Amino acid sequence: MMKGNLLHPELLSALAGAGHGSQILIADALYPHSTGVSSTAARVHLNLRAGMVPAADVLKAVAETIHIEAATYMQTAEGGASEAVQEFQQLLAQHVHGGGEHGGGEKITWSSLARMEFYTACREPDVCLLIATGETRPYTNLLLTVGVP
């Protein structure tokens, strides 16, 4: 079920173990990485320093490697989508509609949750992987559901 050019061994291993319906959290630097997912979820720390590695770069690599069925984002305090989430929506729309070597054919369903509900959803057992990024923009958390080819 894998595709793409991702090289990170731990990330590849965790993605390879994620089957249809599994969920993957791409988390900003402000997210509670140690307590924000189930104890059974794998954690891959790409947060070298503030701004490195950006969440959008992680999303691109993940989208080139697995099929994404759905995406749920953390709402801002005002109940909307952050600037980063809007960037994610554009990025995945380009990926899905032929914008890349591995794009095309996937339909991604988008939804959102308020902050506390998002935290609760991320602690569910279906979340098999947390990817900690160096992203410092608030509300840059995205929960992806793995789809099928």
From TrEMBL:
The keyword Isomerase is assigned to this record: yes
Gene3D superfamilies cross-referenced by the UniProt entry: RbsD-like domain (3.40.1650.10)
A Pfam family hit? RbsD_FucU
The alphabetical list of record keywords is:
Isomerase
Record's superkingdom?
Bacteria
Which reactions fall under this protein's catalytic activity?
beta-D-ribopyranose = beta-D-ribofuranose; alpha-L-fucose = beta-L-fucose
Q: What is this protein called?
A: RbsD/FucU family protein
